[in-house]
């Protein structure tokens, strides 16, 4: 079956999964890998964000391929080549998921020196990646269960053939012996195929368990980011409260100043009136 026939995304199924790892991102910006940063790095933030977004699309394409391949397992189009492609895709995608998880952990540390918008952007990247990994993991589990079911059916059919071989016939002994030899060869071939399929099934099952471990790490990253966002919201809330309190104090100060000015103006008017009265009295006495 061709890769295009199953909707295999470009680049999947190859061994070279050239995702930008956290180490490469660190090398691009000169940052160490121990999580210590001298400040917020816009270059590293952009590099990691773009890498995570690209890997999220990659995992989504892998999930879509697994969904399409899942409908082929157990049908006439099911073959070993398809099983090999499924295994290669899951192996490469799990590696990409592991790399992206490390990049998210690093980005969570980098963005601590950024602003609220950048922290919200990281939270969205994590949420989108976690969601597509959940879909991908469910497809893995579905394929593993279906392949196990097909394996059990094939094993049951092999047992039926073996039971039929033990039934004595009424034909000549030489022909019976020849048929038994052919049947034994056929059973040996079936057994080899079953062992090979069981090995493939174990590989896929191991990949599913690996993704489950990744999901726990993503949940921890989401919890850490939620705490950071909550801290930002609390800081913003306190800042707003302080600004409002400061505005109220300014209003009160303006009121006090206006009252003081009115008092001063009234005192000046009274002083002027008293001065005019005294002046009038003095002038009248002088004339008299």
Automatic annotation (TrEMBL):
Keyword Ribonucleoprotein: no
Domain T-SNARE coiled-coil homology positions: 191-253
Molecular function terms from GO: SNAP receptor activity; SNARE binding
Stored SMART domains: SynN, t_SNARE
GO biological processes: intracellular protein transport; neurotransmitter transport; vesicle docking; vesicle fusion
Transmembrane segments: 264-283
SUPFAM superfamilies for the chain: t-snare proteins
Residue ranges of coiled coil: none
UniProt keyword terms in alphabetical order: Membrane, Neurotransmitter transport, Transmembrane, Transmembrane helix, Transport
InterPro entries on file: SNARE, Syntaxin, Syntaxin_N, T_SNARE_dom
Superkingdom of source: Eukaryota
Gene3D superfamilies: 1.20.5.110, 1.20.58.70
A GO CC term assigned to this protein in UniProt: SNARE complex
Family of the protein in this entry: Belongs to the syntaxin family.
Name of this protein: t-SNARE coiled-coil homology domain-containing protein
């Amino acid at each position: 079956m061709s890769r295009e026939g199953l909707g295999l995304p470009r680049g999947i199924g190859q061994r070279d999964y050239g995702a930008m790892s956290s180490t490469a991102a660190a090398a691009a910006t000169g940052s160490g890998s121990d999580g210590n940063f001298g400040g917020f790095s816009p270059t590293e933030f952009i590099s990691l964000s773009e890498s995570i977004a690209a890997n999220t699309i990659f995992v989504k394409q892998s999930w879509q391929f697994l969904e399409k391949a899942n409908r082929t397992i157990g049908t006439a189009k099911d073959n070993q080549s398809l099983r090999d492609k499924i295994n290669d895709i899951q192996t490469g995608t799990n590696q990409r998921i592991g790399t992206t998880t490390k990049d998210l952990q690093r980005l969570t540390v980098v963005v601590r020196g950024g602003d609220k918008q950048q922290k919200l952007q990281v939270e969205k990247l994590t949420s989108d990646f976690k969601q597509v990994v959940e879909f991908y993991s469910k497809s893995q589990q579905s394929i593993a269960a279906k392949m196990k079911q097909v394996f059990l059916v094939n094993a049951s059919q092999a047992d039926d053939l073996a039971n039929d071989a033990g039934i004595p016939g009424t034909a000549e002994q030489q022909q019976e012996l020849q048929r038994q030899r052919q049947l034994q060869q056929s059973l040996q071939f079936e057994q080899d195929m079953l062992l090979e399929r069981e090995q493939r099934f174990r590989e896929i099952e191991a990949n599913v368990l690996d993704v489950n471990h990744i999901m726990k790490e993503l949940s921890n990253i989401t919890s850490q980011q939620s705490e950071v966002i909550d801290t930002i919201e609390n800081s913003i809330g306190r800042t707003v409260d302080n600004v409002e309190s400061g505005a109220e104090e300014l209003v009160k100060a303006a009121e006090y100043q206006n009252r003081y000015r009115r008092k001063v103006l009234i005192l000046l008017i009274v002083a002027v009136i008293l001065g005019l009265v005294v002046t009038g009295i003095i002038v009248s006495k002088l004339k008299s």
